[in-house]
Task: structure prediction
Amino acid sequence: MITLALSKGRIFDDILPLLRTVGIEVLDDPDKSRKLILDTNQPDVRVVLVRATDVPTYVQYGGADIGVVGKDTLLESGNQGLYQPLDLQIAKCRISVAVREGFDYTAAVKQGSRLTVATKYVAIAREFFASKGVHVDLIKLYGSMELAPLTGLADAIVDLVSTGNTLKANHLVEVERIMDISSHLVVNQTALKLKQAPIRRIIDAFSAAVNK
Ligand code: PRT
Ligand code: MG
Result:
């Protein structure tokens, strides 16, 4: 049995067409059922639904053999010990710095002001601002980052952006792109050894589908 860890939402929606290309059809719709373990048309492949940030943990400790996870989550969790064979090129976005409209970020940075930055991505933000030599006080948030500059909690946020509509709707502007993000395949090292043939087959099929 091969267990594939996925998160509901964007990653699940974007991986379905890729799974189909590699011959795997998920038999339950997570929007209609409350099941957390989903069968597929392949009797030896099942899907488990976990929180996006829990995917590396599931794969690292063997709760799943393979997972699909955003590069943002991988970088932030610092999860080592995971084999990362493939960039699936799905759920693409970027991680950026954004501020309230009218806040002069460039001037603040130039003046060497200390910036308060709210983010879910504390490790990524710390590394980014350190590399620029910008002094920051980081505030860890778990969601609704957009609210922080509007309420005076922070001068800036570091968050994922795809269309930019969320920023726009909240009168925020993107002032710096930190990096491009997409979702990657991650594999449990032990599973790779013990279930080498079926796992290799899945990685190779994904690889062919991505490069098509
Ligand atoms: O939602 P939950 O708290 O359960 O977990 P999660 O937020 O970690 O999961 P989920 O499903 O929201 O995101 C999973 C992965 O999708 C992320 O780790 C990214 O790798 C990837 N991804 C791609 C995105 C986006 N695009 C994205 N736009 N994740 C989140 N967003 C957010 C963004 O932060 C903004 O607030 O969606 C909002 C809308 O973005 P715009 O720019 O299109 O308006
Ligand atoms: Mg989310």
